[in-house]
Description:
Layout: E1 8-12, E2 26-27, E3 30-31, H1 49-52, H2 91-105, H3 109-113, E4 126-127, E5 130-135, E6 141-143, E7 146-155, E8 161-167, H4 178-185, E9 195-201, E10 208-214, E11 220-221, H5 222-227, H6 229-242, H7 251-270, E12 283-287, E13 290-293, H8 298-302, H9 309-332, H10 341-351, H11 354-363, H12 373-404, H13 410-421, H14 438-450, H15 463-475, E14 480-484, E15 491-495, H16 496-511, H17 515-525
Helix pairs in contact: 7-9, 7-12, 9-11, 13-15, 13-16, 14-16, 15-16
Amino acid sequence: MYNNTDNTSARLTSPIQQSPHNRFPFVNGQQYMYPSHQSTSMMPQDPFFYMNNHPFPQPPQPQYHQYAPTLPHIANLQNHQRLVQSFYIPDNLREQLLKRNDATIAAAAAAAATTETAKEAGLPEEVHVYHSLYRMEDKPGKVLGHSSWVYKAVCRTNGKYYTMVRIEGFRLVNEQAMSIVKQWRKIKHANIVSIREAFTTRAFGDSSLVFVYEYHPCSITLFEAYFSPQAQALLHARFQAAGINGMPVPETTLWSFITQIASALKTIHGAGLSARTIEPTKIIMTSKNRLRITCAGLVDVLQFDTTTQQQVAMHQQEDLIGFGKLIVSLACNSPAPVASSMQSFEYMSRFYSPDLKSVAYYLLGKPSLSKSIDEVFTLIGPRLLHELNSSQYYTDTLEANLGNELENSRLVRLMSKLNFINERPEFEKDPRWSETGDRYMIKLFRDYIFHQVNEMGVPVVDMGHVVSCINKLDAGADENIMLTSRDNQTSIIVTYKELKSCIASAFNDLYTKTPNAQATTANKKK
């Protein structure tokens, strides 16, 4: 047992600098702050305020509802024609990323619908270096007979979100069990949910063992994706509509699953460890057909014993058998253990290739010294090339989409320059600097973009007009536009190219007076 003065013990983690409570988390490189109108003097003194009142207001509807699909009559275009959608990332990818972002920072709908506060739910304000705990399950689960809870929490040292798996009422008897976590932390694999740390704590009012993992929003388990009642009903409806009887998982998808899990097991077994969680409820899908093995090291700590090479080899054989059962379950659309192997293989022979059947047959064979994950790769070798090609093709697609968004800040840069110039009270002791010379045209151009009205005097709020004008300004188009003063006494015909030159000149006058520009000039002279 451990003698501690603090409420946490038996920590295994890298050195963490204790910093003040971070209430400004970073999500996808963006820092989110609390509303500025809430002054600190008006903040309630309840330490659970931030857990019961989420600071990130959500829009009344998902933002991706604004993106309509391509119309059918313009789907086939000439080679020189492009759709508006081709200039931006695909709508389905945008929707997926928005959903992940919402799931990460959004307030829990269940918490808003109930009157139970975080304090009444028994959630501490802070556990170790994690705060803003949110319970992700309505009722506790079971892990090897122990009650378990899953939470989402924010680390105050880096502002990132993590998944916390709490084993309730667990007493750690042998401190050497934590050495297993140290080995698991060295494993970094694309198909394994990495473990950050593990520690014991009394912050929940009992002796709890907590595992901290990477957080993957909007992920579901393989069981939820294929074996839950909702998934079964959806699959049945699809098969009826397509007139298909059987083959719930396409073979290409199944081969992709096999390749990913085999790759993860190769890394785990190569490190002298065993997964011990190869089952549908312990493997998650974080995106389309992307699998990750969860609960790394959890079973090893709960069932810790002086590990020998023979025991590790036995657990690795269990991983291979569990792998085979998982393949048969997905192929036969049955989460239950295989009752009759011959009947299952006969079913697979009707819908899948002999190669797939051979892999499952090998994995479900009797354990032996020659049976290893390396032999599995010899069986699936030809399929690895297809998976590698698909992965690289998807990478090319993402890079192409990223290229479309590479310079999406240029409009913001131009609008920033406009605001630096327009309505400036004074520059070089000239209070009318922004109203004279070329700057006057820039002011009229600002009105042309943002302050137009229709024939009824109603403001024209047209985002398309704004984006079109600033894009033409950025490109320096030779198109003529007429700028009119507010009193209609002055009209100027000018091109976007001339306006771009005026803005660049005026902004350069401002920038050359800044300390940064002067320091750069001095360094060049040296």
